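During the reporting period the student researcher (J.K.) took over the structure-prediction task from the postdoctoral fellow and processed the backlog of single-chain submissions. One of the processed entries is reproduced below for the supervisory committee.
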Amino acid sequence: MPRILIVDDDPNLLRLLSLRLKSEGYDVTEAASGEKALALLHAAPPALLITDLQMGGMDGMALFSAAQRDYPTLPVIILTAHGTIPHAVEATRRGVFGFLTKPFEARDLMREVERALEAAGGGNSVQLRKRAAAGDENAWRSAIVTRSPLIEQVLQEARLVAQGDASVLITGPSGSGKELLARAIHAASPRAAGPMLAINCAAIPEQLIESELFGHLKGAFTGANRDNDGLFQSAAGGTVFLDEIGEMPALVQVKLLRALQERSVRPVGASKDVSIDVRVVSATHRDLQKEIAAARFREDLYYRVNVVSLALPPLAERREDIPLLAVHFLEMLARRYNKTLNGYASDALELLVAHAWPGNVRQLQNVVEKCVALSTVEMVPATLVQRALNSAVDELAPFDDARREFERDYLTRLLKITAGNVTQAAKLAKRNRSDFYSLLNRHEIDPAGFKAGAD
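J.K. obtained the following structure tokens:
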């Protein structure tokens, strides 16, 4: 079931939008500010982002720009009560997928949502189930574009393992499509009608990951102002995807092992366990055997999450997929940018096939998007591909930029869990209140946007 992140600082409109989308079968996550939305994005990227344009603090276009840096193919729909032609032109020029003026009809919203999900290649799980019921045997794997025998072998094994509840560990380099494979396993399983919830173990501060996974009770710790079910309870009847499990802190590894053994979790602050009914799929780009040898990953947990192992090869080992993927992304992104593109010049395609692709499929998507955004002709030339490839070499953020990005995400997550209480957030961060305010000011974060009344 595709997850949609919706963002609006008007609580009434946020709730109305959430109810409309949930009634159509979508999994919906709400954020009352752009800052909150960014924290949620990094923890578990959605299939679609819908945001209001005019908001206090970070507005919709600023949120789009921040999201596009890390998730270049995430479709974004912007809503506004102040819609003008210049707004729409500027938004679509920068790559925003859709632009709706409030008030809008429910059917117009749903039409735009379906169009965005289809263009992004993520599909709609409701549509997938309809396709499966109609006899489309490949509906479960429709998001995976391949002609590689290596990938076909992995998909055959994935479909077999999907029929049971055995834990699956997906390995492969960053950007090779591990989450797509996890979602395919879920779609092929008897749990397909249930939710699939994902969490990136590397993106959540150590102090918060236990609460995010297992939940907490109100008052369990400073800043816990309401009960939180956590991922394992929220995914009841479905699948939990633990991305980058090799980054999980040691203490949380112990508690995850117990949860998998006992099929129950104990929320932070609770005295009793809560039974869980989920299937666990994990992924990592690390060699967990080496992590075990270095005492960074528990061997007993490894055998729990690695009942079945599926390995995705790097893109350089499946070069026959490069032209197929390049055309797929070109078509998808041309629809998003509202451009007419008929393909690549032959020498442009040769450049793509010959490239080393250290960033794998994700890097290929990024390069194709650069070509689409900058293209002025219907056939992508080799000069444009070479320009996009050259710029990709410098994509790794400088240390100072990466540190600023981490600080901002960390601060917004603390303010989220403390509902904007700076004193409590500073205690969790083990910083004095003055230092904490200085950090907030440095990143232009307003704690008022996180207070309970703002939700």
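The committee noted the following: The mean pLDDT is 86.
J.K. will present the remaining backlog at the next meeting.
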